[in-house]
Design goal:
Strand order of the largest sheet: 1-4-3-5-7
Order of helices and strands: EEEEEEEEEEE
Shape: globular
Structural class: mainly beta
Distance between the termini: 78 Å
Oligomer: single chain
Largest sheet: 5 strands, mixed, barrel
Radius of gyration: 17 Å
Number of helices: 0
Length: 175
């Protein structure tokens, strides 16, 4: 006799890092990944080659960030899963990554956020490198990227990218 399943929450969250959150029009560009795996839902910087990207580093500034990696079902897990949540997923080196430039998506909020808070990209080495936060978190503040709703620390929440990620640098004298 079959056993009835009474819920579907075992392996399904409300959203996933890097998932486009609505059917709104979004601007997503393709870039070749350089140097290291770019996990889904993380900030990325411009690579050294034309039309390329790379993970953020400790030296990353707001002006370096070009967008956020979008979850793709076309990419396989690059390591065998031992538990459903214990393996890396994202874009490996030399693969073409989808990078969100404008629109809404879901991302993990490391320290929690309030609706309307500016997004902070974590630049400290470790598991959260390139993930997002708000408030007094250490990292790079993106003034034009905001959390849509209140988000509990360690949960996935929605961000909205309005096309400009950071305040442009002031022109230098004589330019």
């Amino acid at each position: 006799m079959a056993i009835a399943q009474n819920n579907f929450t075992l392996y399904r969250g409300k959203a996933y890092e890097g998932q486009i959150s609505t059917t709104d029009v979004v601007e997503v560009v393709s870039r070749v990944v350089e140097s290291a795996l770019v996990p889904f839902g993380r900030a990325v910087i411009r690579g050294t080659a034309a039309r390329s990207c790379a993970p953020v580093t400790a030296a990353t500034t707001a002006e370096d960030i070009i967008g956020f990696s979008v979850r793709s079902l076309a990419e396989f897990s690059n390591s065998s899963p031992t538990n459903p949540d214990a393996y890396a997923t994202g874009y490996p080196v030399s693969h073409v990554a989808s990078i969100l430039h404008r629109g809404p998506m879901f991302a993990l909020c490391v320290d929690g956020a309030n609706a309307g808070d500016a997004v902070i990209v974590i630049t400290a080495d470790g598991d959260n490198l390139g993930r997002l936060s708000a408030g007094s978190a250490a990292g790079v503040t993106l003034n034009f990227v905001r959390w849509v709703d209140d988000v509990v620390a360690g949960e996935v929440g929605e961000i909205r990218v309005d096309g400009v990620l950071a305040t442009p640098a002031a022109p230098s004298a004589g330019n």
